[in-house]
């Protein structure tokens, strides 16, 4: 399969370049930040209206599979990033403190919904289980992410995170719009279902806006002066390592518990992925006004692009294995 960078990845890279050359500062930066706050609230309102209760409770009988995916996402992954953050004390020139905080944040994020389900479907895996686990991960992630981040920050000794303010903003800007949207689903659900493509484009527009605004703020605060090239290279290497580790761990645990190959595909994709779509909007709320915002979101941006590329290759391999297994059972 030929290697190809998708259009959205190029647009995100373009946002970083534009912010580096022409950052939005002063009044323009304030207007952009306010627009981003409103856009994020609308994003979660739309997600609340689009998510059906059936998606949340479907497949709940496969509880062992969901527990495994949840443990990988919210237990093992947060533990794995703690030593990475420790590098900010041991080797700050390689791992600046804000970049280390970004890896802590990457560790507590929920699974990616759309790509987890898409790659599981591409691999001919257990799609209903992927839908249930990925959707539940994001619903509960809005509550779990700030609490887990607080726990990791306390454990690691990082004292620059205003927990009370962050939790208040999470409730007002994310949870409340999500709940209002879900309450209005009987009236909006049909519209959301008919306009899934438009909603997907809106998601991407919000992410682009956040990236441009965040990097504008960070560039003005000296991002590129404070972030050496070797730190960027190390971040990319660590993201590759984390993805490989959790894909391998998922396969080992799935086989240890005797799940099927279709289940294995769902666990590998749902348990190793992290959500950029949820991660950037939540980061905007959790780290609002932080001068190192661009450095904090760098790990999730790197990890997202790597998981997209690796996931596409791995999905094709799973598809071939599952189809071969199905063909063998018929014979």
What does this structure look like?
With 331 residues, the protein is an all-alpha fold. 44% of the residues are buried. The chain starts with 6 loop residues before the first helix and ends with a helix. The chain is built from 15 helices and no strands.
Descriptors for this entry?
331 residues; mainly alpha
Radius of gyration from the alpha-carbon trace, in angstroms: 20 Å
How helix-rich are the residues, as a percent range?
A: over 70%
Largest sheet: none
How are helices and strands ordered from N to C? Answer: HHHHHHHHHHHHHHH
Count of DSSP-assigned helices: 15
CA-to-CA gap between the ends? Answer: 29 Å
Please give the number of β-strands: 0
Q: Uncertain segments of ≥5 residues (pLDDT<50)?
A: none
Percent of sequence in beta strands = under 5%
Architecture blueprint of SSEs:
Layout: H1 7-21, H2 26-50, H3 53-57, H4 63-90, H5 97-108, H6 113-122, H7 127-156, H8 163-183, H9 185-194, H10 196-220, H11 223-226, H12 229-256, H13 261-272, H14 276-286, H15 293-330
Helix pairs in contact: 1-10, 2-8, 2-9, 2-10, 4-5, 4-7, 4-12, 4-13, 5-7, 5-15, 6-7, 6-13, 6-15, 7-8, 7-13, 10-14, 12-13, 12-15, 13-15, 14-15
